Amino acid sequence: MDPQLYQQVLLAVQVSHSPLASPSDRQAAYAFCEQFKSRSDCALYAAALYRNPGGGDAMELHTRQHFALHVLEHHVLTRWDSLPAEEQQKMRVELVELLLREAQSEDEPVFVREKKVALLAQIAKRQFPQRWPELLPELLQVWQTGESQVELVLLILRSLAEDCVSSSFNTSIPPARRKDILQGLNVCLPQLFPVVYHELEKQYAVYKAQTATPVQKNKSQRLIHAALDMLKEFLEWMPLERPVDPSTNFILVAVLLLEEKEFRVAGAECLEVYMTRGFGKENRAIMLQSISQTIEKLDTLDLTTLEPDLEANLLFHKKVNEMLVTWGTCQLDVLLLDGPGEQEMVLLRVILKNLCKLFAHPSLILTEAQIILWLTVLKNKTILKQGETFLSDILEQLRQAQELFATDRVTDTEGVMLYEMLVLVSNSMENKEERWQFVQQIVQDPLTQWTSPEMTTLISSPQNIVTAIEAAANDEKSKKLLGMIIKTLTTLYGIAKRAGVTFSPKNADNTGAFEDEVAQLLGGKNQLEEEEVAKLPVASKWSKWHKNVASMLQNSMLSDLDSMEHRHLKGALAYVYLPFLKSCPRELYPSLLDPVLATLFGHFAQRATSIFQRPNAGDKAVHTTWNTLVVGIEDAKQDIAREKMVMELTRQFIDFIEYAIDPKTVVGSDTDNPKHVTSPEDAFLRDYILTQSPSLPFAIGAILVQVICWKDTLSCRKAVLLGDKLVNILHTNTKYHTLLGRDLFSAALQGILREHVGHVKEDGLKWEIINLARNIYYRLTLGLIPVEECKGIDPCNQPLRPASSLCAAPREILLSLPDVTAGQVEALDTLLREKHSMKTQKNAFKELLEMPILAIRREKALASGSTSPLAGILGSNTNTSGKKILDLPEKLVIPSKEFDTQVTNLDTRSLFGAQ
């Protein structure tokens, strides 16, 4: 080691952090440090620098040590895989000795500890468990040497699990590596958990001891928090029965800590993570036990008072609220599975009462977070069957929500949703008179606003409304009144919609004198009878209908599509084009329906190309004639309102397409098992559009391609399902191969890979998009059909289709993605041919796409001249980074008995005195 270089490194680190150094000196020091990191022997100097950081005050020493750890981490990230196995092991042993076994400074700052953890976790991610099977025994040995080492071990284990599980980190590790690491950790749990449990008990006893010094309390706090943070990451994936094991019941630990101010938020976070797990029928008892213990503890806590420590109490109340809402969202169906008994319904009632307490919380953040859950609860047939006695006190508490409206403490949207929820509450009342009085009470406030003198004057004439709209830009009073019109009408509509009012038919007076006039309105006195019309040729039978409707649509609607705003086009879809689609005679499909829909779909595809484009950073959104000024909305919220209009129009179009090619009629809606069926008329319409029309499949496909790549989850999900239907019906026709195999397949991949630029989609939707890509590849590229369609055919020996009937575009697109090799694609082909489980096939596709996702997240996607159709959006930089983690060639072998033994001489029968 060169002493001169060593001193230069010390000086460069000092200058780069010195506030007294000149900018040029600091820049030179930065450049030297970066150049030093690229040396092949930098790790040797870094280890020496960590051991002997030189003179100076404590902060200077820690800063040099941090730089040394940073260099070592960079060395592991960039050079680890090129080191021989012997050097890897030697370096690992030395670093464990240096960072964990040697005496630790009592005043070591957080940034040094975190860098130690990051460095050792990076090595573990590359070696555990195949090449570092003794990781846990080594960590447990270090555990015995002191409290500083205990904290480091907990942080290392948390970091290792977090990097494998958390969606924010797990894309840095290939799926096979993640699986190996989690399996290795799972095998270690019988050894690890008793030790962690015992440490929690010991540290909590120190924390609560009256004789403990402030320094001791602070250490205990840090260790307990570190243990809970580690537990939270493990609760996401470990077997469901492990955290409720009687000897190490960590769920009970989290429940008991809910009453401890210092640890209650961490305890609630652990419980929330556990409540998101899929318990299912087989683990229902575990879920019931866990939520029973939790709700029993919450019942004793004050969840409404914010003073004296407002910030801390509000945070805890929010966490408890989120935990209960998460339970209701994820576990309500499990609780009500197979006809719940009296005990389960009593438990549910207590949970709902606690939710009611939080619903009336001073912070409306908690109230708003519950609304969707309550809408679900109050529509659940099993709950409503319990009768008014079950919900009486709950309804009374929810009824108090009306007090929120009078104080203007909720937004317009929240107010409407709360009104609708109250109406759902009234629907559960068995007594008709009481239900009527409840709704009357709800409606009173919006009706009072509607009939107020100011509102009456404003709506008394169209001219008054126009005047108010013109004045709204400068007159706050006019703007508020216009907003109240929209809010009041929306509220009354929501109440009427949820109330489900039925009107009794009235006996009409004898109006026979007007029959002739009515007949003239319906077609004239001398119109032909239906029986005679039916005998006419098709051309004569529908000629008048065809002429009038075609003229109306062409001259009044289709000719003005370019000038229609988004909201007007949305209304036209609902009130003109959808009734036309439903009522158009099948004889007029080729001559009337086809050209109308082709024009309509073509226009929206063109409009979507413009409105879905994301402006570059710093550029303002492009305003077109389709989205004009929204009256009654502040200038700062205009773009949000326009974006909402685009989203609503897109959803309306997707619903329209769904009705055209995938219509469903609900049968048995009043029973416990409603079914969706397709009527013969709807089936005929679907078959015409998809198999007989020469242009409509292409027009529909163009829209679906755009929507799948857009950010709205609801529209995207429906577009994916409709795209899957197109593939199932059209895959054998080669004229659609470009649409399905290139455009739709590219859109599906973009929908997955574009997450890194802001298009975050939930995991369920990601799987649906992956399934669409799999289906395209399976049918078009491999020429195979799913098992359920193989009637009379062996799925493993399907007849080969001619090469001319296959589509090679999906394979070419996969090969054009960064870090995807021909061998990986061939392996995918083999798996898809041999494994017919849809789940297995989707997992294989997901694992293949993990590598492009990693590459895209490593390198900023830039447009280039790549031949890939994805290049324009995703970029084509396929340079592999030296920092990536590679799969290990060694097969993971898990001993069945080696780790099953529990650590002896630990008393883990109780914690904090709880049985």
From TrEMBL:
GO terms for biological process: protein export from nucleus; RNA export from nucleus. Pfam families: Exportin-5, Xpo1. InterPro entries: ARM-like, ARM-type_fold, Exportin-1/Importin-b-like, Exportin-5_C, Importin-beta_N, XPO1/5. Transmembrane segments: none annotated. One of its GO terms (molecular function) is nuclear export signal receptor activity. It comes from the Eukaryota. GO terms for cellular component: cytoplasm; nucleus; RNA nuclear export complex. Gene3D superfamilies: Leucine-rich Repeat Variant. Residues 29-101 form the Importin N-terminal domain. PANTHER family: EXPORTIN 1/5 (PTHR11223), EXPORTIN-5 (PTHR11223:SF3). Belongs to the exportin family. This is Exportin. It comes from Phytophthora megakarya. The lineage of its organism: Eukaryota, Sar, Stramenopiles, Oomycota, Peronosporomycetes.
